[in-house]
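During the practical work, I worked with a single protein chain and the tokens that describe its fold, as given directly below.
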Amino acid sequence: MKRIYIILFSMFLAFDIQAKEDLSASDIDNFMKEFEHCTELFQSDEQKCPETWTMKCYNHLLSAHGIVQKCYKDVAVKLFEKFYGLSPKEASTKIDEYNKFMYNQYLFIYNDTSYCKQNNCGVSPYLYSEYATTRELWIYISKIITYIKNQ
């Protein structure tokens, strides 16, 4: 039994050392810059339609959220490839599943409320869900970058 613990501990230690060797400040800074660029892209795109939460801007905002989510997912895929050793396909699948899960959860929260069932909220829950999903991706990637920085 002691041998098993020693083997497991040595494997964990070897993996941890390997992960730390792969980390470089310039890599992390590049990911951070790319991540910040996505956020700036969204903020500038969002300002193109001044009446943000009206139906006039609905399609524009859905498109803007789609673009920034794709940008965030691209950054996440690169992070998963570089620091977690996943293949591009595995990384892409993982972040896509997370994105779909978050969208469906927020759509349930905003669309299936008693208020919306009684008052017909229309398309607003879809936009709110996109916004919340974008925000969740931002939080998720921020946590990944912070974790990698602190290793």
Q: What stands out?
A: The CA atoms of residues 65 and 130 lie 6 Å apart. The two ends are 30 Å apart (CA to CA). The helical segments are 2-22, 25-46, 58-84, 88-111, 114-119, 124-150.
